[in-house]
Amino acid sequence: MQNIIFILLLPVVALSLVTAQSVWRSAVVDDKIFSGSLTAAIMNAATNPKMWLGALLYIATTILYLFLFSKLKFFVVQISVTGLALIFTAAISHFIFHEEITIMNLTGL
């Protein structure tokens, strides 16, 4: 029973990692974090709330990820999270960022 709970956490980890990266993408593209000089870009990144939100979510999720490594086989955790992250990335890319999913993308998935 306990392993089932840990296995159910695998999609949560995958979705949380992709969500954190999506928040960063939003900050970089929508908020134009890296426009201007290097100094301005560093200051923009350091003071942008989306960058902080993404970082906090990523750190919390990484801790959960490491916890799952201690409870399940490495293969189960790594393959599950990687595969689910690819699927979640494609969905978020299409539905949130309105990116086109090509036949080549689907073939890769």
Structural description of this entry:
This protein has 109 residues and is mainly alpha-helical. It is 83% helix and 0% strand. The chain contains 5 helices and no strands. The protein is flat, with a radius of gyration of 16 Å.
Short description:
This protein has 109 residues and is mainly alpha-helical. It has five helices and no strands.
Poorly predicted tracts of residues = none
Helical percentage: over 70%
Nearest-integer average pLDDT: 94
- Name the shape in a single word: flat
Supply the number of helical segments.
5
Radius of gyration: 16 Å
Count of strand segments: 0
Strand content: under 5%
Structural class: mainly alpha
Distance between the termini: 31 Å
Main beta-sheet annotation: none
Give me the strand/helix succession.
HHHHH
Keywords:
flat, mainly alpha
Set down the secondary structure blueprint.
Elements (H helix, E strand, L loop, with lengths): L1 H29 L7 H10 L1 H23 L2 H22 L7 H6 L1
